[in-house]
Amino acid sequence: MAVLAASQTTAQAVLSPEQLRELAGQAVLQGQARLAYDLSGALVDRDDEDLNAHLIRSRAARDLGRNDDALIHARRAWTLSETEEVRYASALAVAQALSSSGRRTAAQLWLRRAVQIAPNDALKARAAEDYRYVRRRNPWATALRFSVSPSSNINNGSRNETSELFGLPFEFALEGEARALSGVEISAGVSTRYRLVETQRKRTDLVFGLSHRTYALSDEAKDIAPDADGADFATSSVFVGLQETYSLPGGKAQLGWDARLGSTWYGGDLLLRYNRLGASYRRIAGETGLFNLSVSREGQLGQGTREDAIVWSASMGYGLALGNGDQLSLSTSLATSDSDADYLDYTQRSISASYGLADPVGPARLEFGISLSDKHHDRSGLTTDGRDERTLKASVTAALPEMELYGFIPTITFNAERTDANIDLYETDNYGIQLGIRSAF
Q1: Going by C-beta distance under 8 Å and a sequence separation of 6 or more, which residues neighbour residue 69?
Q2: Number of H helices, E strands in the chain
Q3: What does the pLDDT read at residue 3?
Q4: Using alpha carbons only, what angle is made at residue 92 by residues 91 and 95, rounded to the nearest 5 degrees?
Q5: Taking a C-beta distance cutoff of 8 angstroms, is the pair 264, 309 a contact?
């Protein structure tokens, strides 16, 4: 060790800073972390604004397990960076130091910064792949949602101005909130999970979610319902739950279950509390397909005048990546609700399909969706024939990758929905545009 120290001292004395920096760089690349750490330390002691020396020392410190030192020198390099290439390298160094010290959520933020300032597509792809790697290792996973949606029918009101009720041979005028009211929906939410257990065959997660949706009425809506306010139709929800996933032998299939407790508010008042228990099955089908099946039971405890209900639901879906890169998915679902209230006692069936184009059309990547559902109530307080509804929904989503910012892409979704029913009161139309964001990776 004395000979090595002497040789290092001699090298530092006879080599120029450029030669010493080159030697330190080669040492860190060849796995000689201690030598690289000492040589870069000499450079930093000589000149604290030696950016490359800070980057080398950060990498060497991380290889030695000295993560606090690695972060100090990475941050120093960041403050010294002036060009895109160097800022990118410094951002990666900060992210790597944070990840090695277990601060993976902060590391993901720095990797998004690296994606944003990457000088070319190859380096951008590398930072995105590093982000995916850190995300897989992070016990925390958080998703934020925000959208603004102008809509022709924020309250799910009738498109008709009159309705026949109770089988009487004349029509009643529909007024106020019974009519469709136009406006703007503002929605925000956050969901997070914390991985409690992860093994080769099993994952156990604690999950939490919070969302809120409120509205601003248009002038036309205020004329139709002068006493109404957008907050009257606001909904909020919160839940906490536990979920587990098991990999089955062969590696192509997974079984899972989840349990949740939650509450929902409407117009600022508590509407219901619920408990939900569900099970799921997923299996890789062929080379690019994925089959999934799920079933759940939800017990709803109505608050105030709302009745209790038991809702059973099941769904089945299949997704496929086509040879040209396009994405196709098909799904069907069935739900039944059992309650003492006519409007909560129903059976509902639906089928849906979506298709996403791999190649952009102009500046946009397009996704198309369509669904058809029918809902049947055996009883209705408004007619002796029960209540039947059929709803058709269609949507077109345009994602705009050229406007990507920190790995987030803006989206514009055009929605159209129409419900026909045997009771005029429940016939609705809804057309709207939803502005949102999604992660690119």
Answers
A1: 57, 58, 61
A2: 9, 16
A3: 34
A4: 90
A5: no
Measured distance CA(419)–CA(237) in Å, rounded: 26
Residue 41's contacts (CB-CB under 8 Å, 6 or more residues apart) are 57
In DSSP terms, which residues pair with 242 in a beta bridge? Answer: 206, 259
Structure tokens that stand for 6 in this block: 């002497």
Neighbouring residues of 53: CB distance < 8 A, sequence distance ≥ 6: 21, 24, 40, 43, 44, 47
CB 406 within 8 A of CB 112: yes
Q: Provide the CA 258 distance to its chain's centre, in angstroms.
A: 18
Long-range contacts of 322-329 (CB under 8 A, 24+ apart): 322/288, 324/358, 324/359, 325/358, 325/359, 326/355, 326/356, 326/357, 326/358, 327/354, 327/355, 327/356, 327/358, 327/367, 328/353, 328/354, 328/355, 328/356, 329/353, 329/354, 329/355
3-class state of residue 182 by DSSP: coil
Mean pLDDT of 124-153: 95
Q: Is a pLDDT exceeding 50 seen at residue 2?
A: no
Distance CA 34, CA 18 (A): 19
Only one residue has tokens 């290092």, namely: 8
**Sequential DSSP letters for 324-372:** TS-EEEEEEEEEEEEESSGGG-EEEEEEEEEEE-SS-BTTBEEEEEEEE
Under 8 Å between Cβ of 131 and 441: yes
For 203-236, write each residue's pLDDT tens digit: 999 999 999 999 999 999 999 999 999 999 999 9
**Residues forming beta bridges with residue 240, ordered by sequence position:** 208, 261
Which tokens go with 50?
């030696």
pLDDT tens, 308-339? Answer: 999 999 999 999 999 999 999 999 999 999 99
